[in-house]
Amino acid sequence: MHLRPLPFNPRTLTLAIATSIFASQPVSGVMAAEPQGSQQPEGQCQTLTNGQWSCDPATAQSITAQPVHEAKRQVRELKKSASQVKSVPTGQNATLKQRLDWQPIQNLSAQRIAQEPFYSCGAYIEPARPGRDYRGDSNKASIVAESNESSYDQDSVATFTGDVTVRQGSRQFESDNATLDRRRNYGQFEGNVRFRESGVLLVGDKGDLQLDSGRATLENTAYVMHEQKARGSAERIVRNENATLELSDATYTTCPPGDKGWQLSGQNVTLNMGSGQGLARNAVVRVQGLPILYTPYLSFPIDDRRKSGFLYPTLSQSSDNGFDFSIPYYLNIAPNYDATLTPRYMSKRGVMVENEFRYLTGNTQGELGLSGLLDKDQLKKENPYYNDHRWLINYRQQTDLTSRWSAEVDYAKASDKNYLDDFSTSLNLSANAPLNQRIGTRYLGGDTNHSWQLSLDAHQYQNMNQTADDPYNKLPQIKLSGNWLASSNLSLTYVANYTKFTRDDNWHYVNETLVNPSDNVYQSNYDSGYGIQRANGERLYLETGAGYSFDWSYAFIRPAVKVQHVEYRLTDLNATEVEKDLNAAYGNFTAADYTESPKTTVPTFSIDSGLYFDRFTSIGGTEFTHTLEPRMKYLYSPYKEGQEMNPVFDTALMNFNYHSLWRDSRFSGHDRLGDANQLSLGLTTRLIEDDGFERVRFGIGQIIYFEDRQLWINPLAGSKTIYPENQEDWDTNLSDDARRLYEDMHESVSPLASEFIYNISRTMNIRQDLMWNTSENELDSYNLYYQYLPDNRRVINAGYRYLTQADRYVKNAENGLIEDPSNPTGYQTTDNNLSQTDLSIAWPVTNNWSAMGRWQYDLTNKRNLEILSGVEYNSCCYQVRVLWRKWVDDDDNIDHPDSKSGVFLQFVLRGLGDLTSGSTKEYLTGIKGYAADEK
Question: In the predicted model, what is the mean pLDDT of the chain?
Fold first, then answer.
């Protein structure tokens, strides 16, 4: 090789070569820059048309000196302004392999630390350099090279020695030695090789670069992807033209350097930052060096984008399902279509397949889910559905027909009531018990002064509770409602609601009986109900009202009137049975009162008023606005008899609390148009800080009844009270329940209702709701709740609930009633008042370890409802959560509880996913305020 002498001294001058548009144009600029203190002239070299290089120091001085000095000045400024990272020595290539731009958390700025999750150990920070923020096509950018010494020959090969840096757009190669071949657009690098481009660093012993395409190869390499917080090593890395990385005998992890929490290794690994996915063949996942998973093919995400491939398999072992294994496969069909297919094997039940398909087209989005056993259920023990086909379907769709008109389908159906308890599901159900089966459309009309809505729904439910009655279906329901602001003070409202209520013949839960003692199989028994409860039919509800508002800064007066009308067309009733039923429940009901088309019209008048007083005060050095807000509301609705014939389709008596003072009705739904002649008196006082933060609120009030309430829903109606033997099917003493309700209707005043909220600080509060029965001088209901929530990792909750309830029947081990020796015609009863405590906590013991627990205790029946305890470990690269839980089901026999317990483990590899059989977050929802991080 013939070498030409350089036109300057390489011992004292750093050579910078810039070959602009190196492969596509005949001329490439070569720029030279002198180090500080050197007086040597700068030169420019060109590639001539004959392929020879020619350098001229005279032209270089006027053309390229300033840009090179400016580039060096920019580098110094970038390094000086990188304030988010404290200064850390860089070290040699071996040190860089270990560090990979890693900055421990203590070296980050306060601003950057605030952006990191609580478990962060640090971050990968790409140092300032020319081209780091380049956004153009690097393949077409100029190539700039720097070194301590350089030489070139007439065959277009340049050799660089000592601190070599080659830059092209956002790409940068550094090494001890390098050669660049203009003809092949090819570069070779040896010794402490470092390749950088935006968000990627590769460090190796030697490598090469195809200058016109960006394809690079490095040997004995370590790498890091900054944004993905991922690193690894490989015997060989190929950086392809499309920026994908192909690794041989490689590792991948999101743990920081030096941490071997988890690591994925594969014979061949491909990392595609363009698609956000990684692919490993003959992959092994190790946790703390211990192999826990092997798969010949593993696709994993390196960011949040979607890609087809197998997801993580799940393994579990249980007494119900036996060995349970499933492995989902995700199909990214198109940007607006995807599906997840999950085959599942259960050794005691058989093979199940679950599929969920999602789509988004135009103004429509939806999903279709199918799940079921491929053969009949093979489990015999405690399974009433042995040898049955079991399945689940879920379909949801929403379409915006116009900006005001929408249509929606929400349909879910299961083969049986135990399906979700036995198998659970990953399908996106909108309700679990009961399952929704609804199709509907809505139109929003009107303008600013007059808004109205018209809706049409066909709504059916599937009851998924073995010990509860089926709810009524609404097939169909048509509703028109609106509000018209006739003036700034006058408003008119209207409602028209037509609904047809139906349900299956066998809807009423009676009891459970043991049908297979050898396998301990119980069967739930149902019948068609009794008396008025057997009613199906149509209901029309109409309401119109007007309200006028007088508002001042210190007071308001708001009179209002409305008229309510409800009428029915009933079917499936037996007149004789209904007469006996209602006469026993309400008294004085005769055959003349029976009708299958009852109707009721009730006018209502109310006048709501209040005053507002405030003053400025200072307490403990804090300025407050102290308010005093007395309020008074008069409500009158006359009693309309004959509503005993109104069935109870969707109506119930609401619990009484402080907000009940201001309601127009004590009933939910439209089946009872309540009577009222009452005056509500209340007083609220608040302490408000200057920024609007409400420090304290206290409200107290009571209703004065001028007349006894006559309208009620007797729980004995429809309970076959004329047949005493049917008490065996009761859980609660309905006679005692009816007695309590009847007495409440004849009280002259309501319970004294109060609410108290004290925000001790921005992170700590106490809430109390108290209802005191002034007539009996006893507590009616009480709620006390304390919460300390400094952040979503630290929370302490303590609560107590009390509510007076009717007595319940004592049951034996077979769920039967126990005869009362002192009353031969009755059964033993006991106190059933709700009295429960609820304590829960989640608290970090260290930055990595957190403890959590919950204890719910039934003081009335002296039993634990739930005990939950666990620990959680969060590191930079994985999360482990272990929970122990002991609980009783809601429908369990109180006197002979069959408590259940279990240990639940969840292991999440950050950046790789959850490798266990599901999340434990559902057990932590009772710890209010706690947010579990599972990313």
Answer: 83
